[in-house]
Amino acid sequence: MNRTIIDVYVLQTVPPSNLNRDDTGSPKTAVYGGVRRARVSSQAWKRAVRLAFAGLLDDSQLGERTKRVGESLSARIKALDPDLTVEEASTRAADVFAASGLAKADKKKNDVESGYLLFLSHRQLDNLAHAAVEAAHTGVAFDKARFKALASTEHSVDIAMFGRMVADMADINVDAACQVAHAISVHAVDNEYDYFTAVDDRKEDAAETGAGMIGTIEFNSSTLYRYATVDVDGLHRTLGDTAATRAAVEAFLVGFARSVPTGKQNTFAHRTLPDAVLVRVRDTQPINMVGAFETPVRETDSAGRVALAATALANHVREVEGAYGERPVGSWVTQVGERTAVLADLGKAVTFGELVTGVGEQVTMALGQPA
Q1: Is residue 317 situated within a structural domain?
Q2: What integer pLDDT is reported at residue 109 of this predicted model?
Q3: How far is CA 100 from CA 78, 117, 120, in A?
């Protein structure tokens, strides 16, 4: 049976930065092809995409992932029944999560928290609030089965894309339709240190010299290879609607291409846009083309890293697809300038807005609807 898989390949150069830190504050790295590479974890970029969704989708299409589940539900309950006090609304929210077994109420703090981050769509929270108010008015107790039913329908785009795991209630888990690879630099990196000082603005005595504070920040700069894939069929199964699936895919493409993790952003002002975005729609399986950079790129007098990376990626895509008889059913390329022009031969060379629309139309047709 044919599938609809969207593979997204991105080349993006970032200046000195510390996008994603490890437990010591150093930029994350990984060894690949025998050399140390800059790395940005998939979790960091997925969160950046989820935050970008807020400006791309309606609030009703989104969810929230939090341990402080009582706050969100009690606010909705009070909005439905304004005569309730804040304490009464919190009590009803506590009853809902107590019935589910997923959260406990701290009566002293009038608070309800789950033991781990709980991912629920805004529509699911709205439905739970309605059910809580109805249960209080009818006197019918809210039970676990009711919770499961309401938490298993009307999933948000972010839940459908990135999945949900609830260890204590596995039957409301949601398989992620999207996979995001750790971004790695196409070349070797060495982390550097920025030694900085801060001057005390009120220190005016000439005899009292020296800085008010000194420190160091570790950083690197890199041209990153980024990859993500979306299982359109899985996404459609979770969302249950062709229009919603297309909107989710288009929002993901924009969010993935334009978002950047915000680690040390005020220090480095590192936000850039990709040098190139290549999207291949496949009917077989996802294919990560990271093998293009197993041999690290080394710039020369005649070519920089971006140009060499674009050439390496273009060559590797052709070689892999030729060897395995892979023929994408659709391909679009958005690239900036001559350095990445070699990628334009891999698909329709278009603006990024046209790329997003083109992929969206392909999704609609693949799901059996007219574009």
Answers
A1: yes
A2: 57
A3: 20, 15, 13
